[in-house]
Design a protein that fits this description.
79% of the residues lie in helices and 0% in strands. It is mainly α and 82 residues long. The protein has two domains: 1-33; 35-82.
Length: 82
């Protein structure tokens, strides 16, 4: 059977990475019984809220940076058109 998908470079990459992906998913599925001790400790001491707040601040900062960058690029595109 002549399949042209695996002759394409992207097809070869998929052919190599798919078994690896399946093997890693099996490995993670087997270790699902282990409880996350660090998260339980942070929740018990009330520090999990600090972690969530820091992550939220970082995500908000990245979002604000991307929005400002988009505005600058849009302004430059308008200047180049005119």
């Amino acid at each position: 059977m002549n399949n042209k998908l695996f002759l394409h470079p992207l097809g070869r990459v998929c052919q190599l990475l798919l078994p690896l992906l399946l093997l890693t998913s099996l490995a993670f599925a087997q270790t699902a019984e282990v409880a996350p001790v660090m998260a339980d400790d942070l929740r018990a001491s009330g520090k999990i809220y600090v972690v969530v707040a820091v992550v939220a601040i970082i995500v908000a900062g990245l979002l604000a940076y991307l929005i400002s960058l988009d505005r600058k690029v849009s302004r430059l595109e308008k200047e180049m058109k005119s």
